[in-house]
Amino acid sequence: MDLLQQLVTIFAENGYLAVFLALMICGAGLPLPEDITLVAGGVIAGLGYANVHVMVALAMFGVLLGDCAIFLLGHHYGARILKWRFVARILTPSRYCKVQDKFQRYGNRVLFFARFLPGMRTTIYLTAGMTHRVSFLRFLLIDTVAALISVPFWVYLGFLGADNHAWLVKWIHRGQSSLWALVGILAVIGLVLWWRRKHRDQCGLD
Questions:
Q1: SS (H, E, C) the chain
Q2: What count of other Cβ atoms lies within 10 Å of the Cβ of residue 133?
Q3: Interval 115-169: pLDDT, tens
Q4: pLDDT (tens digit, 9 = 90+) per residue, 2-24?
Q5: What pLDDT does 182 receive?
Q6: C-alpha span between 199 and 106 (Å, rounded)
Q7: Of 30-39, 55-64, 98-107, which range is least confident?
Q8: Residues 34, 36, 41, CA angle at the centre, nearest 5°?
Q9: Long-range contacts made by residues 45-49, C-beta under 8 angstroms, separation at least 24?
Q10: Which of 36, 65, 158, 166 is least surrounded by Cβ atoms within 10 Å, i.e. has the fewest?
Q11: Residue 123 neighbours by CB under 8 Å, 6+ apart
Q12: Distance CA 44, CA 55 (A)
């Protein structure tokens, strides 16, 4: 976990601004893992260099701003953006076709699950903007709901493991599967609440 240690050092020396800029780099699709960046932000909070709750709020803002920038670039430039050298590297024709297929099969749900698919996130957001499949406000709503799950998860994980490197590394490796489990639990809770509300409304009509 050399990258984690490097990020912790940089963030500890430069504070919130460094975390924010790193998250913007993640959002741009550059090879900097967002989960490790968020964990590093949590670690410096656990070590006393930042407030963990402020870090979560800052991370949410940085993540959403980066995501929105990618979406709006695609929305503004459309297919022309595929000619940009940087975009052409991350959104190849084959990957573009795969993302289109996912939208055809799953609709806007793809935008929610993209938050938990690090290798596909940027390409999915770009494609959503390019194809005008969803309005900006709907995109922001879906992305915010997903980020409210993933961002606190990684930041608080770093905060809790700041003084126990071995434990933290173990849970970083387990983190993605744990995050999917959390999404599943929340989905089940949401379905139960929806069913109970629907059942209560039907009883009221009767």
A1: CHHHHHHHHHHHHHCHHHHHHHHHHHHCCCCCCHHHHHHHHHHHHHCCCCCHHHHHHHHHHHHHHHHHHHHHHHHHHHHHHHHCHHHHHHCCHHHHHHHHHHHHHHCCHHHHHHCCCCCCHHHHHHHHHHHCCCCHHHHHHHHHHHHHHHHHHHHHHHHHCCCCHHHHHHHHHHHHHHHHHHHHHHHHHHHHHHHHHHHHHHHHHC
A2: 17
A3: 887 777 888 898 888 888 889 999 999 999 999 988 999 999 999 999 988 888 8
A4: 888 899 999 999 999 999 999 98
A5: 63
A6: 27
A7: 98-107
A8: 95
A9: 45/155, 45/158, 45/159, 45/162, 46/158, 46/159, 46/160, 46/161, 46/162, 46/163, 47/8, 47/12, 47/162, 47/163, 49/11, 49/12, 49/15
A10: 166
A11: 29, 90, 91, 95, 96, 99
A12: 9
Minimum mean pLDDT range among 42-56, 101-115, 123-137? 101-115
Which tokens go with 153? 């998860």
Give the tens place of pLDDT for each residue, 52-87.
999 999 999 999 999 999 899 888 888 788 888 877
Query: For residue 53, which amino acid is it?
Result: H
């990684």: which residue's tokens? 154
CB 150 within 8 A of CB 179: yes
Amino acid at 103: F
The answer on pLDDT for 205 being more than 60 is no
